[in-house]
Amino acid sequence: MIKITRLPKPGVLDRHQKAWTRALLAAGSDADKRRWEKKYRHREIKDVLVSMFRGKCAYCESKISHIEYGHIEHFRPKSRFLELTFEWSNLLLSCPICNGSEYKGDRFPEEHEGGPLINPCVDTPDEHLEFVFDPIAKLATVIGKTPRGTITEVLLGLNRNDLRAYRSKHISRLFVLASYAETDPVAKELLVEACKADSEYAAFARVIADELGL
Ligand SMILES: [Zn+2]
């Protein structure tokens, strides 16, 4: 997870957020509620989120937009915070697994429960999470540095098996590349590229680059 600067609110929310929220909160039937609720999926909102998160999941940093549409994620779940359904600061882009019922789903721990979760647009993820590559085990693991970091790692499944295996392969290659970066400008350029916000698992790449003083 890396820090992301939130882009300005899409115009469609500027124009309709208040009216949509009012209609949703006043909806008398489930059908009526569904009719209003789905407005958050507006193309313009999705486009800004994809651009803001560079087509990556806000939480696990996996690229999603090349293989599926990605979910508009309500940081505070709309099932519990209906009034935030169209609140721009509550919307993120996430992969279907981080956002799925096995992981975050409708969960949102409050302060007294060890939360809230780390929000990449509000918090500085590095202060709560450590991105550790073990070159012997060849594993790239997210470790909580604070109680909020730990609950975020566990609840979002940031070390779930398939994700960690895929991420570890990628970071293993970067680790090898890093050993050439001081003498080979192409290796250095590739490593710098891997640290950019649009690259998968940039949080790990940045730790490797930092250690080299890049
Ligand atoms: Zn994810």
End-to-end Cα distance: 20 Å
The tally of strands reads 4
Adjacency order of strands in the biggest sheet: 1-2
**Model regions low in confidence, pLDDT < 50 over at least 5 residues:** none
What fraction of residues sit in β-strands? 5-15%
Gyration radius, to the nearest Å? 19 Å
What is the H-and-E element order?
Answer: HHHEEHEEHHHH
Which keywords apply here?
two-stranded antiparallel sheet, 42% helix, mainly alpha, 214 residues, 2 domains, binds zinc ion
Describe the structure.
- The chain has 214 residues and is mainly α.
- The protein folds into 2 domains: 11-113, no CATH class; 129-146 and 163-212, no CATH class.
- It has helices at residues 11-26, 30-37, 43-52, 125-128, 147-156, 161-181, 185-194, 202-212, and strands at 71-74, 91-94, 129-134, 139-144.
- The strands form 2 sheets. Strands 1-2 form a two-stranded antiparallel ribbon. A two-stranded antiparallel sheet has the order 3-4.
- Helix 1 (11-26) runs antiparallel to helix 2 (30-37).
- It is elongated, with a radius of gyration of 19 Å.
- The two termini are 20 Å apart.
- The structure holds zinc ion.
